[in-house]
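Components:
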Amino acid sequence: MSSEVVSELMREHIVKLIASGKRADGREPEEVRKLTIEKNYIKTAEGSARARLGNTDVLVGVKISTGEPYPDTPNSGVLTTSAELIPMASPTFESGPPRPEAIELARVVDRGIRETKTVDMAKLCIVPGEKVWILFIDIHVLDYDGNLFDASSYGTLSALSCAKLPAKLTGGEDQPLPLDHWPVSVTAAKIRRSIVFDPGLDEERIADARLTVTTDENGDIRAMQKGLSGSFSYDEVRYVISTARRLGNGIREIIRA
Amino acid sequence: MESSTPQRQLVIPGELIASGGLKSGEGTYSEDGKVFAAQLGLRSERGGVVSVIPLSGRYIPRADDEVIGQVVDLGPSHWLLDINAPYPAPLHATESPWRVEFGDTAKYLDIGDSAICRILQVDETKRVQVTMREQGLHRLEGGQIVEVSHSKVPRIIGKGGSMVMMIKKYTKVQGFVGQNGRIWLEGNVEDVMIAIRAIRLIEEHAQALGLTEAVKEFLDRAYAQRA
Amino acid sequence: MEDIEHIPKEIQLVDDSGRRLDGRALDELRPIRIEAGVLKRADGSAYIEWGDNRVLAAVYGPREAHPRHLQDPARALVQCRYNMAPFSVSDRKRPGPDRRSVEISKVAGEAFAAVVFTEQFPRTSVDIFIEVLQADAGTRCAGITAASVALADAGVPMRDLVASCASGKIAGQVALDLNKEEDNFGDADCPMAVVPRTGEIVLLQMDGHLMEDEFDRAMKLSMNAAMKIYEMQKEALRRRYVVTDAEALLEERGVDT
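Structure:
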């Protein structure tokens, strides 16, 4: 509880640094932390990846089974994304049913995947109206040091990219998931009048507003989410989009490697 | 000082650290005349007492420690400080350096503000009281606070204060090292950042051989680059 | 259930020369690897690979116990939360606690309360989190073994570490450390946890069917194995806290107090 009270000295220090174009951990405003991806981390999942963005650590598992399609989309597979902010990951996370933060996180990652048509859902139909592939994406946050949106997005795309449709359910051989696009999110935080990318924990705690922009390999915008009680000007939104596109290209290479 | 052979042995809870003749000190427990480690740390023997110097763990308040507290709540005649310990520390208006009218506490220290205070007392059930009514205890204005494990504080202070003096000499920052692992640094923003990096270096390599030299070299390089 | 389908009904868990399906002897542990201090936010942490189990453990505290009415004026609460990630098992597990994980959390927490010096920290709680990332039978033993390392890493005062292991009965024979197939098709499983220095048993469960002399043999196997596990736990902690120059630290302590 006490840890949620933000130190005024910390706030002033970060604000002062950012106003002169610097950050507390020595990064440039447009510099993202080191990203490392370990694919196929979990044997019991059909696809998985551990994504570390600085000290933020997220494990994503994809479970694949077969089942009935939804009545309104009889020719399409089913995709569900959930996120758990387990109390192991931060002193401020509590056990219990998912809080709004976890649901927002899952939905933003889900939109990035779904709206991009990353997974060709039509190809996940086995027998129209009867049997389709069902994908469960579970985001398990292990260590929270800021910017869960991006770490989870990178972990999810990586897990999907190595996921296999299990042959034991339909016969034949394991097939890779039909992946058509590579959406990558980039999150910016606005602190007073300055904007930094990939906010760390302290930056996130004092941020006035946050904007997550997901772009695909063509540079097109595929999902966005603005958060927190502050606001962005239109010019600032345009700046975040163009920077997200540029930073996204570098991140996409790491994920596709 | 009498010659006590320093032992460099890392001990783990449950390990036998003395089988007779030595008294059980901090971080240990005794059973049937034998002393065992109660905490992960370094075995230390001094004046017939064997103890364990912790290498990790939460800060537990002790009377007379000077610490940095952060206001997390306030009442009409007191503040509640977080002192980086499992126990919140109330500061009563009468223990503050100000004449506080009833209900006026926020005028002097508001939520999120930080101050240097001294642990006045800790009772049996670990209820803590702190005071600011002494020289050197004051509200912190400007600067930045970094947190380290309280077990690293002696290393950051250094032998006779040598480490902290060296950092102050190079960076020209003012500072205060709280026993609770909170360190306040104030000065030019870039100098403060170098001081923080030096502290992180000490924190990460607290057990390293030749740490003082390594920190000196880091500071030399940091300032050579800027010159 | 799908896992069971591809295993023949008349499975031979132990061959004529006393070897098990994975090549182990009856008194042999699966390979175990423990790493201490793997998470940034937690006060202490550990990771364990035990056969195909992968488990993370984290400790926070002692910290102020919440909600306040739970606080014990005489001692610290020791609270444990054992949780399985949704992708840790072959059929996706719904997120959140089920009856099994609540029960395991309770008995594991009680086992740790037996060794932590709780009276030193009245009104606080020591919170232990066990996250099963990949399960292959024996997750509670792996979790307790890792959590004990995490407690020591967190600097929590305690009488000793706790080492945990299970033995059971497969194909009519007493065997150490059952894996998933053996657990599914075996006759009994008996997990235990012990305070290695004193031999006190702080956790004991059993299900299945054992003769009294079989139980004696199973406990003997588990006890011997727990001593080996204890050495691995200590080794993991020593690797994390390599002391290169302890004298300096000791001397400084002398000066500063």
